Amino acid sequence: MIRQAFRANPWAFLGPAATQALAAALVTTGLGLTASLDGVPPDNGIADLGIIFTLSSAYLTVLVVGVTMGTAIAGQARDMALVRTIGATPGRVRRAIAAQAVLVALPATAAGIPLGLLAGYAWWHGLAGAGVVPSEATFRVYGGTVPIAYAVTVGTSLLGALVAAIRPSRLRPSVALTEALVSRRGRGRVRTAIGVLLLAGGVTLAVVISGFDAATADQAGLFVMLAMCVGAGLLGPVLLRVTLPVVRRLGPVGALAADAVTARARSLSGALVPLTLAVAFAAFTVVLGTTTAHVTGVAAPAADRWLEYSGTGAYTAFAAVAAVNTLLTVMHARRRELAVVRLAGGTRGRTLAVVVCEALVVTSTALAAGAAVAATTLLPLLHTALGTWRPWLPVSWLVAGIAGTTALVFAGMVGPAAAALRRPPIEVAG
Amino acid sequence: MESVISLTSVSRRYPRGVQALRDVSLGIPAGQFVAVMGATGSGKSTLLHCAAGLDRPDGGRVRLAGQDITRMREARLTRLRRDRAGFVFQSYNLLSELTVRQNVALPVRLGGPRARTVDEVLGLVGLGGLGDRPVGELSGGQRQRVAVARALVTAPAVVFADEPTGALDPATGAHILRLLRTAADRDGVTVLMVTHDPAAAAWSDRLVLLREGAVADDGPAADATRIAHQLQAVAA
């Protein structure tokens, strides 16, 4: 079964593997920073940077690797149903899934650690160059890097895969076979409730922490943001529907796209978590910087800016890669669907236009959700620190942000769809 | 009268050297229901794919609904298929996440002619009340009827059916074949059906038998028992 899983969709696991490699890299960088900052006097103000970065990376990894691995496993529901039919016990299915999760995580982590060391080294040089750390301090590799990095990636990979496998491995085979063909249509009341709870909790926390001093609020803000992004992901099926009435007005292509988004709302929601994270992270840091400069009339010192932007850059890049990977996995599973549309008379151009419409729905939802999350965490903070409720962002940054998000979603959806449409439909659908 | 489907000396060789079709010539007039039979690997599916423009022959010419499709550009070919042809496959090839109505409306939404309303064709195939059910919840026979409805919604000149009853029991299969038969008799739709089931072939007007990629026999279709004998004679 493991072999079948890897052979049937080698590409489906590329997403989780890439995210896990990056996760290992982030953790390695964080650990390296922690070790290197050991010698720096605590009054420097960045002594905790390494630890904070490591913890945030680990937390982020749990989320993002969990989401990508979960999406990859969900694509195997039909295979799971088949092996259940021919006699595999639920336990056996879960073990096979666990083995896949570990098998993906091992090489990915091995690739990620050297990457993380390089990144840590480069970052350290950047910090030294910007005068944040004394130039004579050297970058050191933390002794426990390898076991810790493996523990984080293998652990999160396993967790994500097993959570995704709970439902398909427990079903009776007969139900499993039909279930594999029809994804659940229920609204998922529990899911929506948890999503609302997370969002409400996030808003409350954001208001509470805005009363703290700037540094603490800034750090706690990250966790509030993560909670709210997961909330947004859980509410994804609902959020994605908001734009659909508009899309349906675009004519038959829009209507087809709206139907597809409704049918695939759950799997697309998986991509919404990292996308919203990426948008929220970037928006939070950039708007904080530009508003502060706008209100006070002075730009933050170069060293501080460097620290802020490089840290946010790392998180944003990680979330962005995870988002593209999740979308790639989702689109890979839809090759047959695209072929059926072609067989029903859709030209390549028109079929692709449907996917473009879907991508626009995902992009606008992610932008709106990300902006809302960033605003919730940022506005109370701005009010406390600067006495203003009005964020300020140059139009060029706004345009760049929208263009960047659109490019990400298109790379994850339209790119693979265009590639899939190059093959004759009859070969795919049979 | 011009044939709706016409193949002239069509040959198709697959990359590994397998010759799927050898010099096949076949003309099918409007409103005829043709069954294509032959052993596994005799080239029946390749014949259907080439005739429908889903695959391109290496040699010879194919005309579909009055147009030469041999070297037609892909987008134009797709539009021709969308407007003039309908498809029914063994594996249904429906979008299981969408409702019956959404599946049937697909060709029209993709720009095909709105020749009949969705409700009209659903009534035709006996699925009047099921329009809003997701296709994934239907039985195999019901799914295949959805596929027939989708094939007929554009009032096509030709319906291509590749083992349409392959996954169905005889009674359910007969229902599907009756729908195809009616389409040919009442609306003058040309039907090209590939099958391995003599009982299914008995519903047709004309039987084409293939052996090793060439036409071994071509004549009026008899009853199922007779067809089974013919098939055995060709395979031997």
Automatic annotation (TrEMBL), chain A:
Chief location of this protein within or outside the cell: membrane
InterPro entries to which the protein is assigned, alphabetical: ABC3_permease_C, Membrane_comp_ABC_pdt
Entry membrane topology: Multi-pass membrane protein
Keyword Isomerase: no
Chain ranges passing through the membrane: 12-37, 49-75, 96-124, 144-166, 193-214, 220-240, 272-293, 313-331, 352-375, 395-421
Cellular location(s): Cell membrane
UniProt keyword terms in alphabetical order: Cell membrane, Membrane, Signal, Transmembrane, Transmembrane helix
Signal peptide: 1-23
Domain of life: Bacteria
Domain ABC3 transporter permease C-terminal stretches: 51-165, 317-419
Entries under PANTHER family matching the protein: INNER MEMBRANE PROTEIN, MEMBRANE COMPONENT OF PREDICTED ABC SUPERFAMILY METABOLITE UPTAKE TRANSPORTER
UniProt name for this protein: ABC transporter permease
Lineage of the species this protein comes from: Bacteria, Bacillati, Actinomycetota, Actinomycetes, Micromonosporales
TrEMBL record, chain B:
Name listed for the protein in its UniProt record: ABC transporter ATP-binding protein
Xref: Gene3D superfamilies: P-loop containing nucleotide triphosphate hydrolases (3.40.50.300)
GO molecular-function term, one example from the UniProt record: ATP binding
A family per Pfam: ABC_tran
Domain ABC transporter: 5-236
Keywords attached to this entry: ATP-binding, Nucleotide-binding, Transport
Family annotation (PANTHER family): ABC TRANSPORTER RELATED, IMPORT ATP-BINDING PROTEIN
